[in-house]
Structures are given as C-alpha cells and as structure tokens.
Amino acid sequence: MRERDRGGLTRRQLLGIGGSLGLMTAAGFSTAAVLGTRPASTSAQLISRVPLPSPYTVPLPIPAVLKPVSTTGGVDRYELTQREVRTQILPGVSSRLWTYDGTFPGPTIEARRGRPVTIEHSNELPVPTVVHLHGGHTPASSDGYPTDLVLPHGWSGVAGSEANASSGMHDMSDMHGMTGMDAMSGMHDPRAVVTRLHREYTYPSQQRPTQLWYHDHRMDFTAPAIWRGLAGMHIIRDDDEQSLGLPAGDRELPLMITDRAFAADGDLAYPALDPTLKSRPGVEERYVGGVFGDVILVNGAPWPVHEVDAARYRLRILNASNARQYNLEAITDDGRKLNLVQIGADQGLLATPVTLSAVPIAPAERYDVVIDFTGMPIGSRVRLVNTLGSGRTRDVMAFRVARAATDGSRIPHTLATDLPTWRRSDASAVRDFAFRAGRMGSGQGWLIDGKPFDPDRPDVTTALGDVEVWRLIADADHPVHLHLVGFRILTRNGHEPLPHDTGLKDTVSLRPGEAVEIITRFEGWSGRYLFHCHNAEHEDMGMMANLELA
Length: 550
Ligand code: C2O
Ligand code: CU
Ligand code: CU
Known about the structure:
By secondary structure, the protein is mainly beta. The chain is built from 7 helices and 36 strands. It is 6% helix and 38% strand. Strand 25 (381-386) and strand 26 (395-403) form a beta hairpin. Bound molecules: CU-O-CU linkage and copper (II) ion (2 copies). The site of one copper (II) ion has 7 residues, from loops.
C-alpha cells in the first residue's frame, strides 16, 4: 500500500504505527497473556468550561420522526441534509453542531419491515462524510464504507478523485472503479465510490424489527464527527411485534445516551489534533484510549427528566457515546432498585424476557427494556444512574411519575420464535481475533491481530451462507461490532454468556482481559464490509478490519 505524505505526516507515522507490524500475534485464549499487555494509556475526561444545569431540570426531547418525501412504488423515500447549526444543548449556551437536518440527535427514521427505505443525504458540511446504518442488513454499496465519501462543496483536499467524482448518485453505474482517495490519510483506495454533495443510500428493511442507528463513518474521523452530532435513530417495526401488546406510543421512549464536554465558547470540546477535521486525524496523546465528556446527554439534553404515567414503559436504550460504558440502574427516591426487564437486544426481540437489575451498555449497543412505574407514588421520581460513573457522570436521567393511569400493556412470555439457533457444529471456520493496543515507535495504535486498518487488505474472506465461530479477545474495553450480520454469543471467558447476552447482537462488549466466542451466518450480499471496535477513537486509530463476502 502506498501512502502519500500530506502535511509532513502520514496516518501511520501519526499513530506511531511504524514498520514492524506482525510483532503482535493473537495471544490465544489465555487471559494472563492478554493482561500481560495492558494498553499504555488510560483516558482522561474532558472538563466543561461553561456552567452546567442541575440534573433532572431539562425536559427529555423526543427526536422528530422524519417524514418521507414520497412513498410510491412500495419504497419510502427520504431526504436529509447534513449541516452545521447553532443550537442550545445546555440552557442558555449556544453550541455549534454538525447535524443531520439541523438537530441532534438527527431525525428518527421509522421503517416497516419489507418496505425498502432510500435516503438521499446531502453534505453541506465543510468535510467529507459517509453514512452507515448501524445494525442494518444492507448491500455493500449502501453500507457506508469509510472511503465511500460524499465530498462537500469546494473540497480541494482530494486532488486525485475530485475531478472524477460525479454529482449525486444517479449515474452509479458509471462510477464503479472510480478512484477514491482519502484526503486526510493520503490512503489510496481504488474500490472507493466517491460522490460529490449527494449520495443515495438504500436499505432493504428485510430484517428483524429493531432499533438501529445511523452515524458518520468517515475514514480516520468517525469519532469527532459523531461527537459533533452526526448520529440519529432508525427503527424497524412489523405487525408481529406490534401485536405483542408491549408498551407503545407515548410509553415507548427511544433514549440515545451520549457524553459530551463543552468549551468556554459553548462549542463541544474535543481534543482533535486538527480541529477543522480536514487533514490531520487523531487526538491528543492522553485521549487515545477514548474521549470522555463530563456531561451526560439523553436525546441531546443534559440529565433530562421525563414525566411518566404510573404504568409500564418500553425504553429503547442506545449508547451512542464514543467511549463511555454505562451500567444503568433504575433507583427510586427511597433507594429501591426497579427491575429492568430486557425484551430485546441490538438485533431485535429476545425469545423470552430477562429480568435484570442493571443494564450494562457499551458504545453502539442497544437494550430494549421495560420498566414498570405502576404503584409508584404520584410525584415521586425514578433516576436512571450509571454505576460506572462518578460525580455528575453517575447521573443519567430521571422519570417523574406524574399521574395514575390504566395500562393495557403486557410482556408476553414468548416474545419471538425466529431467533437463529446456529450451532458450533454448523461452523465451517473458527477464527481468532485479538483486539489490543500496539505500542510501536513513539506512539500507540489500536490493532486487530497486530494490524491497523487498511482498506486494501482483505482481512477475512468468507463465503455467503457460511456459519463461522469467531473468538475475540481484548486487552481493554473493546465493544466489537460486525457490519451486515447479527450474531449470538456462545461463551464468555469459557463460560455461559451473561444474562444480558442472550439476544441477537451486532456489538459485543469485551471488558479488559475478556474472551468471547460468537457465532453467525454470513448472509446477504457479496462485497466489502467491516468489523471493528466501536470505541470510536479506537476505530479511528486503526482498530478496524475488512470483512469480504464472496
Ligand atoms: Cu456503528 Cu461500523 O459502525
Ligand atoms: Cu455498523
Ligand atoms: Cu476498542
């Protein structure tokens, strides 16, 4: 692979990932071996420089549901514009955000199973972007590969490909084989499909109903782009799920949890080496483990409060934080813990509900849970707290029980009967992957099997239809995500999976020193997909690999 020198630094030099790759090998399944190479850096939390509101004073916003521009031919067609806006996240403080259609979170897409969705994204931001539907069962051309960039107006950083880039997607057939060039890293990717200003993404919506999310996935700059606001929710529904009688309507709440920090001028603070996010990727040394903020936002509001009926609620929780993990507990004012009944995972409903006293949620995971406020005194409060946080990052949000109400909802004992039941004996391959820091030269990268991401290198090639077992090991917290497919967790550290692991997943949280085995069938479309750590900083610093379906 050829790298061009831009601004004196290539991506590899920047990350300190020099020549001697291959020093690190998969360490097998020994936890001791994993713990023997702890990452050299921990992570610092950013401190906000503006006054922060008291917790549970700001009302919980519910992101608007986007209206299709047309619904003809059985397809729901949407248009979204990516643009910078000034808005208030903290009361009285104006912040510049990068948004989908002017809001953070972006508008929610509501899809019906079996009805394809197309979304035309227009890029009015000052940098290239690319949209990925996380958890989507999506053809490769719409999956948002990190070099499939949509260039903004006047972008001059891409000497090689800008002249070739067409405007819009209407002549996709002409664009295959077009030269793509990641301007920032100088990384040449001949398979990239680069467009100018617009790109249309098509999602078949042929998958189990669930809560997905969409976010930016630009090579080397995903973490700061999401941090600035490029994230939104996308929910797939069907009649079967709706006939179950689960809490619905106002009693179904999508909750996107993120942490952020605010600079003195009110803008989001982020320790980017290049705050324009135009050329030089990476973060300041002490943040290479991940960027953490001191403000917890739910649906873009700081420590919000939501008025509820004394009834059951369905909480569709998404951790869209770059690096922060949460262990969520629901605690009443008199110190009682309420159960959180898990009904779904990343990829849809569980077979049967699982009663949890806490929900551990790593970046990009989703937990679908029911909480029951029935019998709570009117005026009382239930706080959702993060037991992994401290000080103000322990608080997340609160529910205030506002009124008595009737409740016709139920949690059926059988939620779904369509969960895949792949068995180890079905697997045609077993692969090992080590997610570990690599200290090389003067810096650090986050590597999979000792290698940083390279668009040119097919790391895994698998045949459509094959079942495989993947054994993942981690030196630090690494939420591992596969594009395209859902998987099931076979074992954790050689034992049965944990109670919250039972569903169909697309992201599995590995804690330091953990080993997890997952099983999946690679179904869908041929082409180039990804798997990576969803700590967004780790992802940008190399912890990503190609999954080629043939
Ligand atoms: Cu949300 Cu490639 O991921
Ligand atoms: Cu994804
Ligand atoms: Cu990681």
